[in-house]
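Good morning C.,

I know you're traveling, so I'll keep this short. The sequence:
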Amino acid sequence: MYKSLRSMLLMLACAVCGSVLAQDNLKAMQQKFVNEKFGMFIHFNMPSFVDEDWPDPDMPAETFYPKKLDCNQWAEAALSAGMKFGCLTTKHHSGYCIWDTKTTEYNVMNGPLKRDVVREYVDAFRKKGLDVMLYYSILDTHHRLRPGFIDRNHIDLIKNQLKELLTNYGPISALIIDGWDAPWSRISYEEVPFDDIYHFIKQLQPNCLVMDLNSA
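The tokens, ready to paste straight into the viewer:
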């Protein structure tokens, strides 16, 4: 009984220490972001090629065609302005993915560009010593991921896409999530379970700061 009690106390102590360390790490990541002060948010996706922020969710993939794409120019501009990081819109609300994803055919590799924009962005910014952050929209009108229609397949889609972004592109300083518990999406933290997704992200990259852009 004594050994059993001692084991339980040890497990409790480890859990408490782990929680304290996690909180300290979170504060450190938050403070680092605040200290960087100035960065480049690159809203570059399907809306860049149509005259509306929320394009038709079935807009043809070939609409996205940046013929002169040069992510090195972005990185050089950020560095010359004294910026410390970049953040790229990997997928906006209309669901178009600008990386080489296996989760959907609605992506840049099936358009005329056929280049992994996320890969080119992270490589260019890292080469200049800039921190790399990514933006990802939970709301996805192309895949009908919207209030009242969300099922298990949608949750799997989110997780599989996040897994690609957080395992194939090296360390990501921060992930900015949009369209979740937001007035413009109305997707609640219950429909897409917050704890589940948050801990999934942290399992993949514990040092990735998660920011939720929702105005809620």
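Safe travels,
E.
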